[in-house]
Design goal:
14 strands; Porin; twelve-stranded antiparallel beta sheet; two-stranded antiparallel ribbon; mainly beta
């Protein structure tokens, strides 16, 4: 097992966010945040405890929010870009203004099915604060369901899951060529976890994972009887905190 280490980290971020939730008008806000954390890592486990604050500009008004931040993670995948087996899990939570808890959990399990096939199972849940649009949960913005990227489901809470059968066709210096047969489901919830909207999708993804390109071609059919065709390039660097 790798030896553990400790370090301190300061993370500053600034950006604009524009979303058009399903059945809603476009939303846009600017966000500036600063987080200070102490990080401990040992083997496959990593923990971070700190304090975070943010400044929000939304709908002509300014607001600030702050509170303690916790991140727990376990990374047991054998490859971050193209895992053949292993398990990863992460949990992040931000106790904001001593009144609201924003939290997110992500899970991924990968196992080989013979020499050329793999099974990938993912899932997760997230909790927000729908009283502020910029702290609401928007299901689909982090590829929980690929067809919801341009029209996410808004709510106070959400949960999702998915499965993919991966066929590995070729290995080269550029990486592997994979074909995923996938299916994903998701559900948005209200403050008491009452059901709001649900969604499902199924489709194919042809991918070339790796550190150089990491691209995908997508064909997705969803519960609205619509097809989504597209492509992605690169690997998104999602925030490790639960703030939208």
């Amino acid at each position: 097992m790798r030896e553990g280490y400790r370090r301190w980290e300061i993370n500053a971020k600034a950006g604009s966010r524009r979303l058009t939730p399903e059945g809603s008008e476009p939303l846009e806000w600017d966000r500036y945040s600063l987080a200070w954390s102490g990080i401990y890592s040992r083997g496959l486990f990593r923990a971070s405890l700190g304090y975070a604050g943010e400044f929000i500009q939304f709908d002509g008004e300014d607001s600030t929010h702050h509170g303690p931040l916790l991140v727990l993670a376990w990374d047991g995948l054998d490859d971050p870009f193209d895992p053949a087996e292993g398990f990863s899990a992460s949990l992040s939570a931000w106790w904001m203004d001593s009144s609201s808890l924003l939290a997110r959990m992500d899970l991924l399990w990968v196992t080989p099915l013979g020499e050329r096939w793999r099974l990938l199972v993912k899932g997760g849940a997230t909790a927000g604060d729908a009283s502020r649009p910029y702290h609401s949960v928007y299901l689909g913005t982090r590829e929980e369901l690929l067809s919801l990227a341009s029209r996410p489901l808004a709510g106070e809470n959400a949960a999702w899951g998915g499965v993919a059968f991966r066929r590995v066709f070729q290995r080269s210096l550029w990486g592997t060529v994979n074909l995923d047969i996938l299916a994903n489901v998701g559900q948005s919830y209200g403050p008491s976890w009452e059901r709001l909207e649900s969604a499902w999708e199924a489709g194919l993804a042809l991918s070339l994972p790796g550190g150089f390109l990491n691209g995908r071609l997508l064909a997705i059919y969803d519960d609205r009887s619509e097809w989504t065709f597209g492509f992605t390039i690169g690997r998104p660097l999602w925030d490790t905190d639960p703030m939208p």
